[in-house]
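Batch 3, record 17
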Amino acid sequence: MKEKLAQIKAEALKQIEASEQLERLNEIRVNYLGKKGQLTAVLKGMKDVAPEDRPKIGQMVNETREEIEKVLEASRVKMERALREARMKAEVIDVTLPAKKNNVGHRHPNTIALEEVERIFVGMGYEVVEGPEVEKDYYNFEALNIPDGHPAKDEQDTFYISGDILLRTQTSSTQVHEMEKGKLPIRMIAPGRVFRSDEVDATHSPSFHQIEGLVIDKNITFADLKGTLAEFARELFGDKTKVKFRPHHFPFTEPSAEVDVSCFKCGGSGCRFCKGSGWIEILGCGMVHPHVLEMSGIDPEEYTGFAFGVGLERIALLKYEIDDMRLLYENDIRFLKQF
Amino acid sequence: MNTALSWIKAYVPELECTDQEYCDAMTLSGTKVEGYERLDKNLEKIVVGQIEKIERHPDADKLIVCQVNIGAETIQIVTGAPNVKEGDKVPVVVDGGKVAGGHDGGPLPEEGIAIKAGKLRGVPSNGMMCSIEELGSTREMYPEAPENGIYIFGEDAEVGSDAVEALGLKDTVFEYEITSNRVDCYSVLGIAREAAATFRKPFCAPEVMVQENGEKVEDYISVEVKDADLCPRYTARVCTNIKIAPSPKWMQRRLAASGIRPINNLVDITNYVMEEYGQPMHAYDLDQIAGHKIIVRRAKDGDEFQTLDGQVRKLDSEVLMICDAEKEIGIAGIMGGENSKITDDVKTVLFEAATFNGTNIRKSAKRIGLRTDASGKFEKGLDPRNAEAAINRACQLIQELGCGEVVGGIADVCQPMKEPVKIKFDAKKVNGLLGTEISEEEMLGIFRMIELKYDEETQMLEIPSFRQDLLGAADIAEEVARFYGYDKIPVSLPNGEATTGKLSFKLRIEQKARDIAEYCGFSQGMCYSFESPKVFDKLLIPEGDALRRAITIANPLGEDFSIMRTVSLNGMLNSLATNYNRRNKEVRLYELGNIYIADELPLTKLPEERVQFTLGMYGEGDFYSMKGVVEEFFDCIGMKKKAVYDPASIKPFLHPGRQADIVYEGKKVGYLGEVHPEVCDNYGIGTKVYVAVLDMPEVIPFATFDRKYEGIAKYPAVSRDISMVVPKDILAGQIEAVIAQRGGKILEGYQLFDIYEGAQIKQGFKSMAYSITFRAKDRTLEESDITSVMKKVLNGLEGLGIELRQ
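Prediction for the assembled complex:
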């Protein structure tokens, strides 16, 4: 019996080694290990074996089965691997063929710049608020310390709807609405569309966007204003950005300043971008004029604050090196897709 | 404002700095320097030479050979200039030197023009004699310079000396941007005062002393101001024996550097004083003034008046006029009249220096359409004290320049002057506002420099009348800050109560709208808020339609920008048209912007501003792609119910058979459709355009960021396909409504998977096939569950006239 088993095994292994196809391995499996297979036949012949020898023979049969199975399995794995290799070899593709893109749309550069600014100020605890674009004269001018007859009122080339209704010329009007709510302290930015009667050209548009900022609390100082805007400039234009505050005049702030940042193209050494000066003007700001606080019902003896206004297009044009403002309103897809 | 640095230094004699230092320091103390230009740029090795001998060139008729003494030596120069003669003193650029430009006066080359010794037609020439154009200037500014020739100095020029200096070109012209509150700085004296304080140097104002002849001004002129509200002060002085001649070179040079063309001594003096004091002056020929009387009064409505530029101007009763006993002779503060213009024969001059109501001048100048240098200064509101100082200065110059005699006294009609402003000074408060620790001494030092007087007892600062901008404590803080240095103020961040940084719900939904639009391939456009009233016709919006009730801008930039939009489609279609014309394929755009809806016209209260989420596209995709974007958006903002698309929509600008109102929970929240082919024609778009417009104020109340997990189904779903023959006019929406209504609790979903119209289907019908899915949350469905529901559904469908196919 032992010899017979050895012979079956030797034969099986030989056949396995000779086989080249998975189907053949299956045949071998059926032929030797299947219900009508040779090993099974040996087991069926156990009735002819002496009972005391049966366990031993049984064990031998099982060992033989296991060995054949092991070799069969190894052979199957080997064969399948070879097959997969061959298939993959045939599946080589040209990875340089064009991509299949999803063609997602693009945000307007103004919005990208705005979201940057919003991110920075929201991070500093500012709320983003909005105000009306068609506005009362009072909010656009008078409450900002620009009474009737003030030169600044004429300088701004306002579009009027009727006597006291106009298209706002500055987002500063939103300051007043926020202050009037009477909820202090205030930390807000107010982005929005503003209008001035400028003819359309490469640097002017009758409608553009500003972002107004306002902080009102006890003990707010000019130093706080400087610190806040320096932080803003570094976030927006990079860590190395330096900020310069120059005295200026706005009717609704006192002291007032204009802010230059070191040119983010040349780093301040002077280039075409900053017209050789190393500095680029980006915004106007100042301490809220006590009279403005008073008009909106805030006691200037108790509260102080600062305000600033940034031109959104200015930031977008600078940051993305767009040389003609008209591109922002043409909506040519070849322009928009660059952002 | 442009001014030569030498003029500033005349009043700040100790000022010493480079041009760049001056520029930086002035800008940081608040007098912004826009730029500066060196007048001696590219002028090198140029001296005063004297022509000793002139000979003809042996080989050229048009050239001459000059021996020119340049001090240290005499050099030979060949020139073609026609205007020189022996003995003339001329600017000479020697070998290795540089001039600024060519003799034709064209644009100056950036690097100048190098001059080298050479030969002209064989004769050595060791330098060049210069015209004023070659020296970078013009005959406008140097009226004595000859046309097309070498500049010739006066007798007094020193041979061998620096010609650039002799011409007054060793100077730098600074251009300042003066802020509107600093009226006093629209003058050389004002800027000089700032420069003195900036550099901590003494400020020396000109000493004004007028030598009068024995006559009295009352014998020449009387002044009456009828409308004192518009003229707080009117001063007049008279000068006799006027001799018109060129003004001295130093005055010409200063004016020229300021961009003012020298004319003659009288005109130059008024211009000079205007620059120096910031006070516009006017000179009348006294012999032309009837009755030797000046009356200041308003014009009458409808009056006409010829200004000295020859133009006839229409007046009204708000325009202030200067008149004599008989007639109007000038528009106050704006321009004098043709009828009292100074001529070269003038004998006696009446000087006027007045203060007018700034707002009135500004408004008058605007209405008349005539803005002058003078009106530009008056409209800022001048200091009445300055008028007197300026008129005396002018008289002093008349006398000093030998232009005439000054009659004694001043005719002065003056309203009571305002008391000087006094402001309480508290160093602690200033530091509190600035966030600084500047000592009181240092602050007081700053005040002294800018001429604010401090009374220690009352702790009050007295403000000089020329500083009309200083009214309160905050203004004082700014003075401290700018002379202490904005750059030296420390930096800090606001501390105090913490606040939450956030965006409003509306803005967050708008952000989602942008995200979804972009995921779906739409790029963001921006359109104007105002447009032409013609867009209503372009969009086929009928007369009388509510959309035509647009807000009109009273002073638009032209008809194309004259109304506030009531519908967002024009901007979108224009943008698509721009792309179409530029042959851009596959364009998808969206816009988030307001329309403006008036409650009542003309406007009595603010209109409603409604954000419109507008999507537009041409190229790949159709109505259903657009519908998909809308649904993706709704899904993303938590609008989980099924929107209804109502084909009863009748937008005139959309295809009548391909449009729908978007209805959510019974509310119209927008519309979508294919743009009407005629509208496409009107915009010049030769392809199908699809649009969707969501009225965000209607959408936002349904939006939510709340989400609740509903569990993933544990039990299997069962689906049933039904195939139907459907009357053509039955809409998918009707079929789906039946399925949704009758499907009961176990209905999970349904999906149209086939729709067909054609030969195999009988006339007037279409074939549609749906797959309906059922699932229960708590058990595996049994056949009987499904059969009973399906029966209900099928019954319902049969009610619509639908036949089931096998």
